[in-house]
Structure prediction request, 641 residues.
Amino acid sequence: MAEVIRLENVTKVYRSGSLSVAALRGVSFAIEQGEYVSVMGPSGSGKSTLMHILGCLDVPSSGRYWLGGEDVSHMDEVDLAEVRNRHIGFVFQQFNLLPTMTAWRNVELPLIYAGVGRAERRRLAVGALERVGLGDRTDHRPGELSGGQQQRVAVARALVGDPSLILADEPTGALDSTSAADVLSLLSELHRAGRTLVVITHDPEVAAAAERTLRIRDGLLVPAAEAAL
Amino acid sequence: MSWFETLRTGLEAVRSHRLRSALTVLGIMIGIAAVILTVGLGQGAQDQVKSAINSLGTNLLTVSPGSSTSSSGFRQGFGTASTLTLSDADALSSKVVAPDIKAVAPVVSAGEPLSDTVNSNTWTTTVVGTTPTWEKVRNRTVSQGRFIDGQDVTDHTAVAVIGADTASELFGGIDPVGQVVDVNGVPVTVVGVLNPVGDTSSTTGSNQDDQLIVPMTTATQRLFGTSSLSSILIEATSGSTLSAAYQEADAELLALHGITTPAAADFTVASQQSLVTTATSVDRTLTVLLGGIAGISLLVGGIGVMNIMLVSVTERVREIGLRKALGAKPAVIRRQFLLEASVLGLSGGAVGAALAVIGTRLLPRAIGYPVALSLPATGLAIAVAVAIGIIFGVYPASRAARLAPIDALRNE
Prediction:
C-alpha cells in the first residue's frame, strides 16, 4: 500500500514578539492509502496545528511532510493552493457552505478552481450529492437543509475532486447525536469504499469509529502503549 | 479558474447584496451623469455661440478703424478713428492685391430714429450703408422684394432693405415693400425685407434682424454726411485661405496708410475665429470648473466603491478562507474582487450615462439651454467609471488575496 501521508519530525513554532510557543515539537507518523485514522487530543494539544499542516493550510517550522509522495514542507502559497485543490477534501466543523449558493453549486467549488468545464462540474457535483444521499436536494440552499444534511453537502464537496485524503476537523462538533451518527456512518462508508480519511476530534466516540487513533498531547504524539492506559 | 467563472462569481456577490451594491452604484452614477451633463452644457453653450457668430457670414474678416485721440489726449478705443475709407475697400477688392479675398463689403453704420409714414410708428435702429456684396458676405437673403443693387449705389437712391424685426416694429402686419420710412428726416422707400436669422444680440452685440440697409452712397451723402467707414467686411475664398486673406488685407492696408511698423496700425483685422474664441472662453472656463466639481463627486463615488469593497472583504473573510482552502490561488481571489469592483463601476457608469442621455433631452426644455451629448465623451466617462472601480478595488482585493486561509477560517 502506498503512503498518502508521511511526517518526519515536524515542528511548528508560533512567534509573537519575543514570545514563542511550540505547538508541535517533533511529530512523525505515516498514513497508508485507504486508512481511517483519527487524531485525538485535548484543546491546546497541537491537534489544530497538526490539522493545518496536514491540510497544507500552513507549513511546518522544521521537519518534512510528504503528501502523496510529494514534499510539501517548503511550498509557497500558490503551490499549496494547488496541492489542496488536488489532494485534500476538507470537512469543517461549521460546514463552511456558501449560504447564497445551492447545494450543487457549493459542491462544484473545488472543481471551478481545478479548471473543470461547467457541464462536467454539474455532472460530478450531482454525482457526489447522490453519493451522500442528497440527490434530491441539489438545488436547495444551505439554509433550507438540516445541519446533518449541510454536513453531508460538505462531505460531497470534499469528495467531488477525488482527493487523495479527506481531512475532517470535528465533523460532528456542530451536530446533534442523530445527525452525528449519520455523518459518522457516511465516513465509515467512504472508508469501506477505499477512501483515506483523517478525522481530527476530541470526542472519543468519533475517534473510536476510526481504525487507528493517534493521540497528541503537548505537541507530541503519545506512544500507543501509553495511550492505552 | 476562467475569467468567465470569475465574472459570474463577482456578479453573484453583487447580486446577493442588492441594496448595498445599488447604493454604491448610485455614487458612481451621480458622478458620471454630472460629468457628462456639465460637459454637455458647456459644449452646447459653445456650439450656440459658434453658430450665432457663423450666422454673420462664413470665412469672414472684419476690419475696424483704430482708436482716435481726443483733444484732451485720451485714446478713445478701437473703432473711433476715421481711418478707413471707400478707397481702402476698393483696393482690397482687387484680385491682384488680394487673390484670397472673395468679396468685400464696406459698411457705415449708425443708430438713427425712424418713423413710418403710414402709422407714424417710431423706432430707433442701426442704419447700415453698404454695397450689394453685403448680402453675400453676411450670408443673408431677402424674404420679400429685393436687396439694394449697384444702380442704387450709383444713383444714391433713397431705398432701403429692412430686417424682419424692424419690419414688424414699424409696419406690424402691413406689407412693408413699397412703404416709405422717414430716416432722420429723409424719406426712404422700402424695397425688401431680410430673412430672419434669430436674435443673436447676446453673442454678437446687435440684433441682426433689426437693421435698415441703404446704399453706401445714400448713407454717406444723404444721411450721415461722413465718408469714413465703420468697418470693412471681407469674405475669404475658403476657410483654408482665411489666414492668407488676413495677411493680404493687413499688408495692403498698412501700405495704403503708409505705416511701416505693424504695431502702429490705425486699424484692426479680426477673424470670426477670434470672436468665437473670445466668446467661448468664458463658457470653456465654466465648463472646466463645473466639470471639475462633477469630477470630485466622481472621486467621492470611487471612494464609496472602496469603502464597500473593504466592508465586503471583512464580511466575507470566511468565504475567502474557504475558497482558498478549496484551492483558490491568491491571484484568483484578487481577480474576483477586482471584477466585483469593476462591475460596480461599470453599472454606475452605464446607468449614469443613460441618466445623462435622458438629461440632455429634458434639461434644454427646463433651462432653455442646449446640451450637447458627445458620444466619445460618454464612452470615456463609462471607461473612467470602470477604471475608478478597479483603482479603488485594488486595495480591498489585495487585502482579500493576502488573507491566510487558517486565519480566515478561524474567524467565527
